[in-house]
Write a structure and sequence with these properties.
319 residues, Nucleotidyltransferase, domain 5, 2 domains, five-stranded mixed beta sheet, three-stranded antiparallel beta sheet, 9 helices
């Protein structure tokens, strides 16, 4: 079987530009400076870079990289396409060290490249999960030690009665919503209390939906927003009751934590939202929804526009 990574645009720079232009300019070549469509000419010559056009309106030169995560990057475009394919097709992620070895670039470049790709994975569109008769599962989890002081109160607002061990260690809170058989939305929150969780449900779940959770009291504030709210009691060993369960969101958390612990291992709290975007993207473009590795890479490529990430924004802490 022929490997997808043997395709020409993964190894030839001119073919890479043509491939990206075909995907991003499917409705016409757009000038990123003035927005004019199909009113530019290609500049050609021995000293001219690959893929350079000049707009006939604003007279400015541009390439398909301008206004995308590729802008101002010295990494070859065909290397970028290899990285996009590897990140989008690796179920639990691929480390910067691994990308550095596979792509033949420095670790610093691989780390920055992977963060730009995660930025492209971010879903900026708003569409509430669920709908009439549809089920949305909600749950919260905790991953990694949160920066800052030790909290004096629980999420319920009550004081800690016991101070032994790590009972008061502050953990990074994550809330995820999964549409049964559909997509996921994850949120890194400062604190998973009732008001925060209720706000997430209200703003991201359609009112006609059925909400399924565990017995946590955090979701009682969202009851009035959804059509129905059902829960299972994990504390008493009840995980499924008919079609009532939160196994889908638990399964998503399993993939996320295995990837974070086994592949990435270290993650600064200020970057956690980008890793959540990565795992959300792969889950939302998984095989059960009709996507293969090539489809996922294409979907990721179409998300690179308007998401330029400067080095200053990614280099605040090491990961």
């Amino acid at each position: 079987m022929k490997s997808v990574l043997s395709d020409k645009h993964f190894h030839n720079e001119k073919a890479a530009y043509e491939f990206v232009e075909k995907k991003l300019w499917a409705d016409g070549r757009v000038c990123p400076h003035c927005g004019t469509i199909d009113n530019s000419k290609k500049l050609e010559g021995k000293s001219t870079r690959i893929g350079v056009y000049k707009c006939r309106d604003c007279r400015k030169p541009f390439t398909v990289k301008v206004g995308t995560i590729f802008e101002s990057s010295h990494i070859k475009l065909h290397i970028w396409l290899q990285a996009i394919f590897l990140v989008s097709s690796s179920k639990k992620g691929i480390s910067s060290n691994q990308l550095s070895r596979v792509l033949g670039i420095t670790l610093k470049s691989a780390w920055f490249l992977s963060h730009r790709i995660r930025e492209a994975m971010k879903d900026n569109g708003f569409s509430p999960l669920g709908g009439e008769g549809m089920i949305v599962e909600a749950d919260e989890t905790y991953f990694g030690k949160k920066s800052g002081g030790i909290p004096e109160t629980r999420t319920s607002g009550k004081e800690f009665s016991k101070r032994k061990g790590d009972a008061r260690i502050q953990k990074r809170a994550i809330v995820s919503l999964v549409e049964r058989g559909g997509k996921v939305k994850s949120f890194h929150v400062d604190r998973a209390d009732k008001a925060t969780v209720a706000s997430i449900v209200v703003n991201n779940v359609a009112k006609e939906s059925h909400l399924h959770t565990d017995e946590s009291r955090l979701y009682t504030g969202a009851d009035a927003h959804v059509a129905e709210h059902h829960s299972t009691n994990h504390g008493s060993g009840e995980y499924v009751r008919g079609n009532v369960h939160s196994n889908s969101v638990e399964g998503f958390f399993g993939i996320f934590k295995r990837g974070m612990k086994g592949v990435y291992q270290h993650c600064g709290e200020n970057h956690l939202h980008r890793y959540l975007s990565e795992f959300d993207f792969r889950y939302n473009n998984r095989e059960k929804l009709g996507y293969n590795d090539q489809d996922r890479a294409t979907a990721l490529l179409k998300g690179v526009v308007g998401k330029r990430l400067t080095y200053q924004r990614t280099a605040e802490t090491n990961v």
